[in-house]
Design a protein that fits this description.
Layout: E1 9-19, E2 22-32, E3 36-40, E4 51-57, E5 66-76, E6 80-84, H1 92-104
Antiparallel strand pairs: 1-2, 1-4, 2-3, 3-6, 4-5, 5-6
Length: 122
Amino acid sequence: MEHRLSKRITTDLDLLVYKRGMPVATGKIRDASRKGLFIVTDYTDVQLNQELEIELRFPDCPEQLLRRLRAQVVRKTGQGLGVDFEEVDNDVFTISSLVNWLQRYRAPEIEDHPSPRRSLMH
């Protein structure tokens, strides 16, 4: 049985993955919490404990600002990457904003009503 310290929110928000400041992959957040994310991606050129940056945009925000978070890779699977926010320096407000946004607009298969477009690529 898996024990989590914070509640996971299922979603499908698109994002970009950066390594050493350069964009290296696209992906989708499968689930998120205040502690970290699981990113569905086919990107494999990464090691455990390596630091990445995750860039996302909240689609329904009028300012359409991009947000970038630093994260440490804590898990690799054939489906993607598990990343943790706790071991790196981050803006707590951005993490809270992400989790709050995801609580309002979950993946369509989870809710009974449609959610706003989540794509970063226009």
